[in-house]
Amino acid sequence: MDLVAVLRSYVERMLREVSGIKVLVLDPETTRIVSAVYSQTDILEQDVYLVERLDNDSSEPLKHMKAVCFLRPTRENIARIRRELRDPRYAQYHLFFTNRLDDIRMQDLAEMDVSEAVLSVQEFFGDFITLDGHHFSVPVGRPACLLQPVNWDVASCSEAVDRMTEGLAALALSLRRRFTIRYQRGSEVCQKLGESLEYLTGQEDRGLFDFGRRAGEPAPLMLLLDRRDDPVTPLLLQWTFQAMVAELLGMELNRVDLSDAPEVKQEFKEIVLSARQDDFFRKNMYANFGEVGIAVKELVGEYQKATNSSKKMQTIEDMQNFVDSFGEFSAAQRSAGKHVTLMSELSAAVDRRSLMDVSSVEQELVCGSGTAANMQQAFEDVSRLLANSSLTDDDRVRLVMLFALRYERDGREEINRLIKSCQDFGMDLRDFGVVRTLLLRAGADQRVGDLFSDKTVSSRLKGMAMKTVKGVENVYTQHTPLLTTTLESVARGRLPHIDFPRLGGGDTSPTAAKPPRLVVVFIVGGSTYEEARAVAEANAAGEKGHGWSAGMRIILGGTGVATSKTFVQQLREVERSAPARH
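Below the sequence we write its predicted structure tokens.
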């Protein structure tokens, strides 16, 4: 059940069904969908002469060519195809839509196709972006609207719910499963999304989604969560390879843009990190920073032997100098070169911003107990860091936000003092309005889950035990996302119905009480790479029959990938919207 394989099979079938040289026509969203799973080289190997955009009105007619069009069935795209068919630029059109095409739009196309240029119309349910085999996203137009009350921007929220419904419906159809839907209590947008999905799959198009049930197998679960229930995970610094690259360097659809890094060679200004295409990344994407450094050194060492070089390489800088001495890049050298480049850039950011000190305080802040003594120690540690000139203003804001989340009830005076100390350092008071917005929209009164493992005696004891097991050597990776606890509750059949209501009525079959074997968890507001790693590890253990996830397969989705930068930016947008709405 690999989502990358699902999307690749769709693209391969489209291109294979239309023989001969062809043009692949995409819209802005399907361009992202295809580029996440197919490289330009892969596409050209399928007899594709040209990749064209549907909205490129200046493209030259190619009357002898066949057009394979992979498009979302939106009103805008249907209008563009209608205009295209008035004066066709291609000899034939083979239309493949990412989702259900309703009868009215089908009729619109048929009426306009007077020259009978359209030879086929099919539905291939790939209306989502795959980030990895177990990880996907359904992007929405204005993500910040998902963090604010629906009535602040009804139009944007309605559009977002429609888009999420379409993406999750396509996922269900691609997996050929009809899901039981549960949503997080108190989340207005999760409830609206759940009701929209239930209406579509259970009433409006019930026949399309009625795949039956496999004998003796409980219904798969689609669990809708709100990012606001765990605002900590996207705010923390990350120390595993994939998550660290996304947090410190930025990554969009597996592409890292280093065009602004002056020391990076031209060959590595854009780096693609794909688990399917890059063995080193696949093996090390969830390894911690130190482990990746050792692996990169070993990788470079292999090529050093091949070149009979005896130069000692003790540091990342030594490895970077060795890579810079390469002449023409072979495929193997390019792999070594790009990972040395990434490690060099990550190391520079860590040193420049004193991130190991910052992360140590962050982890203790969110994983330590919430006692008065701990709060005082955390206040002193954060105050010390805020005075460190190496920190960026964004790092300071993050630290104050994390402290505010941990001690919002008992530490109001300390929160104000931390903000005041940042002002003394030259920051503007307006930079910290986002702290108030965070507490209003994702504070303790807004959350359902036990974010800091301190709501019950048993959760506090479990948290202490986990900290003892993990030990001091993992001080930078103590934190476990709330998602892990939620999924464990699902696997053990203990997810409270009062906190996660089920839509569509109760299931009275004998298998209803059994935990689901397939779970799609979708986070409204965006998933994180730390959560993707947690899901990957649960799946790996489950395949071996180990632990709580034995026999279970989990797929993680969200409205994008949340990093501290994107999360804070969206909260700032909510903050700007708030005064005009109150």
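Residues 141 and 159 are 8 Å apart (CA to CA).
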